[in-house]
Amino acid sequence: MTSGAAPQPPPPPLEEGSLPRQLTGLRSPIIWGILMLVAIEATLLALFGISYFYLSLGAPSWPPPGVEPPALLSPTISQILLLASVVPVWLALRSLTGRGSVPLGAGLAAGLLLVGGYLALKVREYGARDFLWDEHAYGSLDWTMGGYAALHVVIVLLTGSVFLALSLRGHFSRERYTGVQALVIYWSFVALGSLFFYAVQYLAPRL
Asked: Is the domain 32-42+70-206 a CATH 3.40.50.300 member?
């Protein structure tokens, strides 16, 4: 006769209804995906910066002769608008988690208006450039970095507009807001990435 503990009964099966239908924060694969995208994009930003300073160190003068450093007023205003656009969307996200009072639709609308102001100023700024991308290395980098930053802001504008339409239809709630989290993370990264370009394009030539 053998001795030993009695066999334990198997654990009860999980009820499908007891599992969370929406994961938020670092528990969500969507958030990890957007964070990895941000890491890739940050690497590209670093490569732009390295290329800019590498070429500037090897040039007799930077910007090249006949090219004045870009004026600061318009890009400074546009950069402030883009950074400010992050504030209402973060406040709106907090309202979804019960920690704020700014409605999601209002926060997204305010952020999108500021983003639109940024793009309008950028179009005006580059329309007044006295050099093109094919004239010299400085022009190539300046237009490429400006276009790269503007492209990402356009992505934020289009995606944010879709989210605004969804929010007006009541798509998001305290139980379903992971997509808004991902949007706000990417939106914030785009604003900070544009600040990096601002420092490289407009401040570095004056050092």
From this structure: no
